[in-house]
Amino acid sequence: MKTKVKKNVSETSLIVKAIQKNDFLSRLDDEQITMMVERLVAIDFKPGNDVIKEGTEGDSMYIVAAGELLVSQADCNLRTLTCGDVFGELAILYNCKRTATVKAKTVVRLWFMERQMYRTIMTNKSKKKLYTLNLPTCTLLALNDSQLSKIIDSMEEVKYQNNDVIVREGAEGNTFYIILKGEVYCVTVVCSTISSTVLEEPDAPEKTSPSSSLRLKDLIPVLYQEGRYQGEPVTLGVGGFGRVELVTTLHHGKYFAMKRVSKKHIVAKRQEEHVLFEKRILKAIKSDFIVRLHSAFKDTRYIYMIMEFCVGGEIWTKLKEVGRFDEPIAVFCTACVVEAYAYLHKKGIMYRDLKPENLMLDAKGYVKLVDFGFAKELVHGDKTYSFCGTPEYMAPEIIQNQGHDFAADFWSLGILVYELLVGSPPFSSSEPAKIYPKILDGVLKFPPYMGEGAKSLISKLCRPRPGQRLGNTKNGIKDVRHHRWFSSMNWHKLRVGQVEAPTIRLIRKVSLATAGNFKASMDTDSCEPDAAEELLPSYP
Fold first, then answer.
1. Residue 233's closest CA among 208, 260, 209, 207?
2. What is the domain-level CATH number for residue 229?
3. Residue 476 pLDDT greater than 70, yes or no
4. Same domain, 295 and 378
5. CB burial of residue 141 (10 Å; 0-12, 13-18, 19+)
């Protein structure tokens, strides 16, 4: 970690007040704020200089120490920033494009921090918590790293004033404490004689302390056709890294979804590892609740993944068509996701990108997970610190860079249940910067038509502390399956495909060439593949 930057009392006070009045940063604890104050660096700008420019990527946040700055968007002036204002804070979370230009009106001094430093501070705090719990005591020595991690996620930091009673003799005990700072007295009444023991911070010993083979050339695009009109290839979806087209084989007429990703785009976004990892995961997966990868190829311009074609289309499209799902449909869709999660988590794979857009319906109406661009392998008990996912579905610990594990998937499951039943996620805004504070506040507002079982499930899945979330406690995903909201679900029959899917009525009985279950999108980027090299063996 970088050397601390000295600041006088007034500078420190200004920075602390600026952090405390910011919607996002105000949720940092005292120690994190202190570490930020110590490592913010001063930078000066002359009048007319751009601090940040609209449309460019940034990795720093700023606090105004002196002077005035003008905020503009598309050459329209929005507001003026003055001493104590904070701006650019989204950039310390993830690599995003600036939504406005900030220009110095006067001589300006700013305090700034880069994303890597902020993440280092958050990561160090999380690791310090683990170290604190890893004490040489009889009780904790028997715990493995996974169990210690669960304890950390379940703990809350509380503060007591001098002479406050923490534990009263004779009262029922269901809580244990670890002293992080300060000292306490243990007072025991023995035959009307009071004896006391001091418990201190760690210095004195013996005292409680903190601690069939497919070839690319055999595949042809399915052209959009309505009546006598025949147009461009049918596009099933367009994402951040490529396009998914409907293709068929020359000989036996089977349909596939072909995901085509530009190599140039992959390299420009430094996503080589992500794309290869997605291919490797999908190659290994054999689950009826996850889309199947048949083959993968590459040529000089593109990488192609030949996937199972889900004729029913996206859950997101169906949801927008009807507004919100009836409870039986929501239960079925969620149950399919639970089975996909059970398979992935057992193999040590976090999904991390659950949302209706990534759920597809097959011909029977069963739901399948697609798009593994954010998936990650993780040893149970470990944590990862990458910032990824869809803002509305992110767990609090991801936003706060505290380190996350499989519990983050259960948070997003709760958000999915809410969106399926309501039609929109519980924490939403047109601006990501406004979504994150809502998630951290964690206030769930349920509409009057939502059943008590659904409310209970969502509340338990969306608990702020990962260790307390349904699915991440002692019995794991079994607790999710046994929740009363799923009382009508026969899990064994679901796994073997014997449950009649209520979603089947959402699937239109139309010609594939009209893309009736998909949002049609014309492709102006023609694809004439070069001689392609197969990336992996085809599945039979």
1. 260
2. 3.30.200.20
3. yes
4. no
5. exposed
Alpha-carbon distances, residue 340 vs 277, 359, 369, 374, 539 (angstroms): 18, 11, 7, 15, 20
Whether residue 265 is found in the same domain as residue 404:
no
Do 388 and 500 lie in a common domain?
Answer: yes
From 346, 332, 244, 355, select the one nearest 293 (Cα to Cα): 244
Token match 């110590």: residue?
38
Residue 185 included in any domain: no
Q: Is 438 annotated as a binding residue?
A: no
Question: Do β-strands 86-87 and 255-262 pair in parallel, antiparallel, or remain unpaired?
Answer: unpaired
Positions marked catalytic: 353
User: With bands split at pLDDT 50, 70 and 90, how would you rate the model's confidence at 230?
Assistant: very low
Q: How many domains does the chain have?
A: 3
* Gap between the Cα atoms of 368 and 357, Å rounded: 11
Give yes or no for a contact between 506 and 498, defined as CB atoms under 8 angstroms apart: no
CA distance 191 to 302: 83
For 246, the domain range is 217-310+515-536
Give the integer Cα–Cα distance in Å for 145 and 383: 11
Ramachandran area for residue 442 (φ above 0: left; ψ -120 to 50: alpha; else beta): left
Neighbours of 484 (CB within 10 A): 12
Q: How confident is the model at residue 151 (pLDDT cuts 50, 70, 90)?
A: low
339 and 470 housed in the same domain: yes
Tokens representing 283 are: 């190659």
Q: Are 306 and 437 contained in the same domain?
A: no
418: CATH: 1.10.510.10
- Cα separation of the two ends of the chain: 52
Does 65 reside within a domain? yes
The pair of structure tokens assigned to 531 is 């001689």
**DSSP state at residue 501:** P
Residue 193, in any domain of the structure = no
Over the stretch 331-387, which tens digit does the pLDDT of each residue have? 999 999 999 999 999 999 999 999 999 999 999 999 999 989 899 999 988 899 888
